[in-house]
Design a protein that fits this description.
The complex is a heterodimer of chains A (111) and B (115).
Chain A (H helix, E strand, L loop, with lengths): L4 E3 L2 E5 L4 E6 L6 E7 L6 E6 L5 E4 L2 E5 L5 E6 L8 E9 L4 E4 L3 E6 L1
Parallel strand pairs in A: 2-11
Antiparallel strand pairs in A: 1-3, 3-8, 4-5, 4-9, 6-7, 7-8, 9-10, 9-11
Chain B lengths: L4 E3 L2 E4 L5 E6 L6 E7 L6 E7 L2 E5 L6 E5 L5 E5 L8 E8 L1 E2 L2 E2 L3 E2 L3 E5 L1
Parallel strand pairs in B: 2-13
Antiparallel strand pairs in B: 1-3, 3-8, 4-5, 4-9, 5-6, 7-8, 9-12, 9-13, 10-11
Classes of the chains: A mainly beta (111), B mainly beta (115).
Chain lengths: 111, 115
């Protein structure tokens, strides 16, 4: 059974703080995606990482794929209230890219 | 916006009934994947359709079935509804290129409540 464990499950911080969300598995993934989901809506893609050790930056968000392609992290610098939401990591398995999702990290950024 | 649309947005059914959910894929995409997201959990893969055929299935019983049409839109059918089927149902479209599925883009989902 392939599992993706995300931590922490919940995070409540003040505006301006930094944070890191982790995504870990014992399985190797062909790629890993990070999504952000608002209540009642579908997940919105933030980034796809493919190569072991890859680092991608999206403004204040930094994504890293582990060297062995089993884990990933999302770091947010100087969080803003607009960053509030559910962050999901998803690893792709197989040629047809079945996505295995973590349970998500619910982030609340307070002014 | 991803260009992936789903209908209906909300649906209420009773146990034992059947339901059909619909998804229109993004322009240029030929593959649709369906996911079930229970409250407080991440989405779970149901199945994927490519070229009108099932192309992979998750751990869901046969009462979950699907179709893909020549225009690449798709339907998810669930028979004999159970209370635990209450969830947000998401479809995601992608493009197959060189035998490899590219990144999936999600629709807004259909919220199903089974009473």
């Amino acid at each position: 059974t392939q599992l993706l464990e995300q931590s922490p499950q919940f995070l409540s911080i003040q505006e301006g703080e930094n944070l890191t969300v982790y995504c870990n598995s014992s399985s190797v993934f062909s790629s890993l995606q990070w999504y952000r989901q608002e209540p009642g809506e579908g997940p919105v893609l933030l980034v796809t990482v493919v190569t072991g050790g890859e680092v991608k930056k999206l403004k204040r968000l930094t994504f890293q794929f582990g060297d062995a392609r089993k884990d990933s992290s999302l770091h947010i610098t100087a969080a803003q209230t607009g960053d509030t939401g559910l962050y999901l990591c998803a690893g792709a398995i197989g040629g047809y890219n079945k996505l295995i999702f973590g349970a998500g990290t619910r982030l609340a950024v307070h002014p | 916006e991803t260009g992936v649309t789903q209908s209906p947005t909300h649906l209420i059914k009773t146990r034992g009934q059947q339901v059909t959910l619909r998804c229109s894929s993004q322009s240029g995409h030929n593959t649709v994947s369906w996911y079930q997201q229970a409250l407080g959990q991440g989405p779970q893969f149901i199945f994927q359709y490519y070229r009108e055929e099932e192309n992979g299935r998750g751990n869901f019983p046969p009462r979950f079935s699907g179709l893909q049409f020549p225009n690449y839109s798709s339907e998810l059918n669930v028979n004999a509804l159970e209370l635990d089927d209450s969830a947000l149902y998401l479809c995601a479209s992608s493009r197959a290129a060189g035998g490899y599925q590219e990144t999936q883009y999600f629709g807004p989902g259909t919220r199903l409540l089974v009473l």
